[in-house]
Amino acid sequence: MKILLKNCNIIDPLIDYKDKNQILIENGIIEKILYESDEIADLIIDGKGKAVTPGFIDMHCPLREPGFEYKETIKAGTMAAAKGGYTTVCCMPNTNPIIDNVNSLKKLKEIVCKDAIIDVIPIGAVTVGQKGIKLVDLDKMLENGVWMFSDDGNPVWNEEIMEECLSMAKTKNLLIIDHCEDLDLVSGGVINEGSVSKRLGLRGISNASEVVPIKRNIKIAQRIGAPVHIAHISTQESLNAIKEAKERGIQITCEVMPHHISLCDEDIVDENTDFKVNPPLRSKIDVEALRAGLSEGIIDVIATDHAPHNYMDKPGDFYKAANGISGLETAFSICYTYLVRNKYITLRELIKFMCLNPAKLLNINKGRIKEGYVADLTVTDLERNFIVNKNDFVSKGKNTPFHGKKLWAEVQMTIGSGELVYRKE
After folding, report:
1. What is the set of active-site residues?
2. What's the rounded Cα separation, in Å, for the pair 101 and 282?
3. pLDDT tens-digit readout, 107-142
4. Max alpha carbon distance in the chain (Å)?
5. Cα–chain-centroid distance for residue 115?
6. The whole model's pTM is what?
């Protein structure tokens, strides 16, 4: 099937297509990029001058199924992703059963094959049951197509296990993604430690709880000479440690979430636990540092950590409420609103963080609008603003602190592997 997408404002992270405005897609691949064309196509779509970017790629996306279908399903999660402009998501292993063996992996793949409307790449657990005690059989998981591993939600705190999995990462080309959290330092905290936690009378979480395990991982990665990816950094200290490690040639990459570059602890509304997330919303100083970290290229990727919850999991008590924000449908708009419109980074740089860089880390033929690449495309009206209404979310998780906020850049259409997977009504 041939599809012609015409009247496009093509935004590629590396190539300036100012003189070309048409994209010809055939068999799910970008066949040609043209100025004007008389090409015959089975389907012609008018982009109406809107921005056309590569489809977004999310390296950090808990989808809940199997086991927690009341929070989210593969079908609802991928539909939400498509609405948000995503064409690829990497699903975390904290399901039930946990994706720590081939049998649970096969069950997940069956559901994905049946229900997913975009590409879903499974991430396996690092340790059995994500308990941090015994390393999973990485070789068997690798034989079955999994090469990324994370105990997302739990840190890999045992140094011997971290050394062993990073050694295998070096020899077998794996990627270890670590949730860096010193649970002893967290000590039951629920929001960022500071003036806001004192005012609200809530136990705080120090910045040290994040940077201490990051520094430990840096030492191990340096000693072994292996790559490591740090999930959802949130503090200035973490950013500084990663910057110094990169300057010393250590193979470390990291990601940041839209909520950590847009909201701080001062935005938290008392008893609104949609603001409760792990790591927590930090101080204004940390937010500004992370924005600078993006503009300076220290941070590699913007991911979502999409964490959908049922309303029962988010009672008004911060001590009882689950951590997490439902983020797939608002991620790009948040980043465009807070980063691009405020001139911290350019649109093309944002596309690098959400498309090109994750594609490179995942080693997939995506993240570009270029002939021969997979036809994953997102059409966005950059001049259109909207008010976030959680009740309109496709995701089963309505837990968002952005409810009622005005954002810019609304996704109008998403094409995944040459197929129209979302179109705004």
Report:
1. 305
2. 36
3. 999 999 999 999 999 999 999 999 999 999 999 999
4. 67
5. 20
6. 0.98
Question: How many residues comprise the chain?
Answer: 425
* Helices of type H across 50-101: 74-83
Residue in 80, 121, 133, 66 with CA at minimum distance from that of residue 358: 121
Q: Where are the beta strands (DSSP E) in 244-364?
A: 252-256, 301-302
Give the residue from 226, 361, 340 showing the smallest Cα distance to 294.
340
- Cα–Cα nearest to 351, from 388, 380, 374, 313: 380
pLDDT tens for residues 200-244? Answer: 999 999 999 999 999 999 999 999 999 999 999 999 999 999 999
Which DSSP state fits 356? Answer: I
Q: What residue spans define the domains of the chain?
A: 54-368+385-406
Round to whole Å and give the CA distance between 293 and 162.
26
Amino acid at 56: F
Exposure of 216 by Cβ count < 10 A (0-12 exposed, 13-18 middle, 19+ buried)?
middle
Which fold would CATH assign to domain 54-368+385-406? TIM Barrel (3.20.20)
Separation between Cα atoms, residue 64 and residue 74, nearest integer Å: 8
Distance CA 49, CA 390 (A): 29
Closest of 306, 311, 300, 352 to residue 331, by C-alpha: 306
**DSSP strand E in 222-266: where?**
228-230, 252-256
294 residue type, one letter: L
